[in-house]
Design a protein that fits this description.
eleven-stranded antiparallel sheet; about 5% helix; 2 domains; AttH-like fold; 19 strands; eight-stranded antiparallel β-barrel; about 55% strand; mainly beta; 2 helices; single chain
């Protein structure tokens, strides 16, 4: 089943695009005349031993001159986003009032602030809420080159995080933990219904020498719960991916996955990933979600945002599950 709403998460081209330092800043040259034209900036954080997951986001609609964004940090699994120890996402601000120094440095009305120290290499993320005793000061430093999508409109990059977090008055050190950041621009993200199964964006980092990204739907051959209800062919299940291994960034040439979900909430519980890199090496990676929450960044879509524990080749890594679910799926497959 095809749907024009899907273009923003489709893979275009088998290779990598080209990153320049300018891609860490705004892209005002976009010719797209659509209210849903989007530009985003995402930074994640985790403290696995404390079961803590954090998500910092800037979401711009340049044709509307609006900005959405902020930060959440939660400990364990939450049924609602407002159960998080820290949740402060503001839906509507005026972009031109906030982004006065491009993305070199900006501060949202809720105090969420990002400074680009060196494009493609280092950024600082800050937030403070004295009334609830919440605070973040984190530096995020690249451990790999930028993985630019083939359409030159999106990239990902594994980062090392260091800093300090205060969560409801309890202080934590962010000490050499890893997360994959991303940036998107130049495409609309329509808010209409997507009559399709869930789409899952997954990242994991094990150390400075191994990280991966895999973006996919469940493969029909692995018998997902929605099989028979959505006409989703196997050739459309894999959308994007890469592997960074021993200093080499490689495109994923294929793969498949199956996600098992909680019947009540739809929350992803586990992932089984089969992935092949451009050197022909196969990977079998298993993920279990550990902390996170559901959030509807726009009303017709629910995104489950989770810290995931990954197992590969007797090793353990950590990273993201970010799964988009739309109304047709949720209506039929959750209680």
């Amino acid at each position: 089943m095809s749907c024009d709403n899907q273009n923003w998460f489709k893979t275009i081209g088998a290779g990598f695009g080209e990153f320049t330092g300018a891609d860490d800043f705004l892209h005002p040259q976009s010719p797209v005349n659509d209210d849903s034209l989007t530009e985003t900036q995402y930074f994640g954080l985790n403290i696995p031993e404390a079961n803590i997951y954090g998500f910092g986001y800037l979401w711009l609609h340049p044709n509307l001159d609006t900005a959405t964004g902020g930060l959440f940090v939660c400990q364990g699994i939450k049924r609602s986003h407002l159960q998080a120890e820290l949740f402060d996402m503001r839906a509507y601000s005026k972009q031109s009032d906030i982004i006065t120094n491009d993305l070199h440095s900006f501060r949202l009305p809720n105090s969420y602030q990002v400074d680009v120290i060196e494009p493609g290499k280092s950024m600082r993320v800050r937030y403070q809420d004295p009334a609830r005793e919440n605070f973040l000061d984190m530096t995020s430093t690249a451990i790999m080159p930028v993985a630019m999508r083939g359409n030159n409109l999106h990239f990902e990059q594994a980062m090392r995080n260091q800093g300090e977090l205060v969560l409801r008055g309890k202080r934590y050190t962010i000490d050499n933990t890893f997360n994959v950041r991303d940036r998107s621009w130049g495409q609309p993200r329509p808010e209409g219904h997507n009559p399709i199964p869930p789409m899952t964006w997954m990242t994991g980092t094990f150390d400075e020498n191994f990280a991966f990204n895999f973006s996919a739907f469940d493969h029909p051959d692995l018998k997902p719960e929605w099989l028979g209800s959505f006409d989703w062919p196997a050739e459309n299940s894999f959308h994007d991916g890469w592997v960074y291994r021993d200093g080499e960034l490689l495109r994923a040439t294929g793969g498949r996955k199956i996600t098992r979900r909680d019947r009540h909430s739809g929350r992803p519980l586990t992932h089984e990933i089969e992935l092949t890199d451009s050197r022909g090496r196969d990977y079998r990676i298993r993920g279990t979600t550990q902390a996170g929450l559901p959030w509807s960044g726009w009303p017709n879509c629910l995104v489950h945002l989770n810290l995931t524990r990954w197992e590969w080749d007797s090793r353990v890594g950590w990273g993201d599950t970010q799964e988009c679910q739309w109304t047709d799926y949720i209506h039929q497959f959750t209680d």
